Amino acid sequence: MATGNVRYVRYIAIALFTLTLWYFVSHSKYDTIPIVDGKQASFPGGPGAPQVPGDSSGGSKPPAFPQGEGVTVGDVPKDETPLKDDTVPKGSNLPVDESQSEIPPPATSDLPKEDTEKAKGDETTKSDAAAEMPMPLTPNDPGWSNLQDIAPGPRMNATFVTLARNSDVWEIAESIRQVEDRFNRRYGYDWVFLNDQPFDDNFKKVTTSLVSGTTHYGLIPEEHWSFPEWIDQDKAKKVREDMKERKIIYGDSISYRHMCRFESGFFFRQPLMLNYEYYWRVEPSIKLFCDIHYDPFRVIAENKKKYSFVLSLYEYIDTIPTLWDSTKKFMANHPEHISDDNSMAFLSDDGGENYNKCHFWSNFEVGSLEWLRSKAYIDYFEALDRDGGFFYERWGDAPVHSIAAALLLKKEEIHFFDDIAYYHVPFTHCPTGEQKRLDLRCHCDPKENFDWKGYSCTSRYFELNGIDKPAGYEEQT
Ligand SMILES: Nc1nc2c(ncn2[C@@H]2O[C@H](COP(=O)(O)OP(=O)(O)O)[C@@H](O)[C@H]2O)c(=O)[nH]1
Ligand SMILES: *[C@@H]1O[C@H](CO)[C@@H](O)[C@H](O)[C@H]1NC(C)=O
Ligand SMILES: [Mg+2]
């Protein structure tokens, strides 16, 4: 019996050991983060990931940035171009952090970049694809609540665009993170960065790691960031000194004036931008408060919109005292450019005699590059540039774009993106209706919504277009 007892004890010990082992394996903390083979392996440089061209380190070393690889950008030669535009291929990207998600998205969420590119390049079948794959625009539409997978459907010929200095890197990183989390991680649109100085490696490394699409870096040529020869330097200098004394914001800044002139007349003509039809402008330190369930580029393209906004307000008159005089002169010289169905009522309360200073806030814009490159827009910009107000005053690109949109476009070509909740210091656009904020998982405080406050011009846009204001707007005035 003694040997029999020992055997039983041994069996029990083995059973206990097995149970304990099973317990530890099944309760191991690794198990709290689901590991799905396809998911893990899909990260470049992650376990099981294919080796990335130009990154022999397998992801453990900082990615390399070979010039001129990645998505071919028109016929701009990467190394020879006087603009020294750089393209950072997506292959050198760092992992995009989707691993925190409790429910791992299916492997289809990691469609290779080429599929997205193919969809974008497939312009001839775009309308077919669009018809087959309508966008969910409301919570009742199929596909609305799927924010995990790569978005199905066509891609527009579009890019994000940011003008920034190297020193803006962390502020723009914050903006990119928000744009990616709320929208672009499912779309993979490209991002063009422009600068009057060459971007440094750190800027490129950080931004490329954050953007899901392909990043491109362009150096602005000097003639797009300097005084035109007809500007009287002494006069411009006196203006800056005077504005400094009067404490006008950016009043004494030369670079801010170059920035405003560049955004007014040149960003859409940079070689890198010629590769796209639509743009979405993003500035440093902006916030997005709600999920973006549909593709704003597609809303613009399919509805033939040319310009869009989320915030509008009155311009500081001391920065633009003669902008309206120049505009009236342009209207008289170029009646052919003025739209019959324009939005003059947004700009003027007396049929165009005086400017009411209303403008769309241009730090957010989704719009048509083809429109900005049109003769009508260029003629307007050149008329303004000749008059010198970018330097003899401090004309901003916001009133310039806005006046152009309101006068050169048809009313219905300007779109208000209520669903894109947005902050740029110091103003917030937060959708008015509670149900909408819940549907879009917004994290903005509705009390902060600027739309219906006295200093906003958005009411005028609604009235002029005969659009009903959302229920509950009165409580936010
Ligand atoms: N490269 C470059 N970008 C600039 C310069 N000044 C402003 N910017 C960019 O132009 C945009 C507007 O400038 P910002 O300082 O945000 O002006 P604000 O929003 O009007 O206060 C931002 O995207 C800035 O990063 C400059 O001197 N060089
Ligand atoms: C995108 O638009 C640009 C500018 O119009 C054009 O040159 C380019 O061929 C377009 N690309 C595609 C893929 O349609
Ligand atoms: Mg800004």
TrEMBL record:
Keyword Transmembrane helix listed: yes
Pfam families per record: Glyco_transf_15
GO BP, sorted A to Z: cell wall mannoprotein biosynthetic process; protein N-linked glycosylation; protein O-linked glycosylation
Chain residue ranges for the region called Disordered: 41-143
Keywords from the UniProt entry: Glycosyltransferase, Membrane, Transferase, Transmembrane, Transmembrane helix
InterPro entries documented for this protein: Glyco_trans_15 (IPR002685), Nucleotide-diphossugar_trans (IPR029044)
GO molecular function annotation: alpha-1,2-mannosyltransferase activity
Parts of the chain that traverse the membrane: 7-25
Compositionally biased tracts (Basic and acidic residues): 76-88, 111-126
One GO cellular component term: Golgi apparatus
Domain of life: Eukaryota
Similarity comment: family membership: Belongs to the glycosyltransferase 15 family.
Protein's UniProt name: Uncharacterized protein
Organism: Cylindrodendrum hubeiense
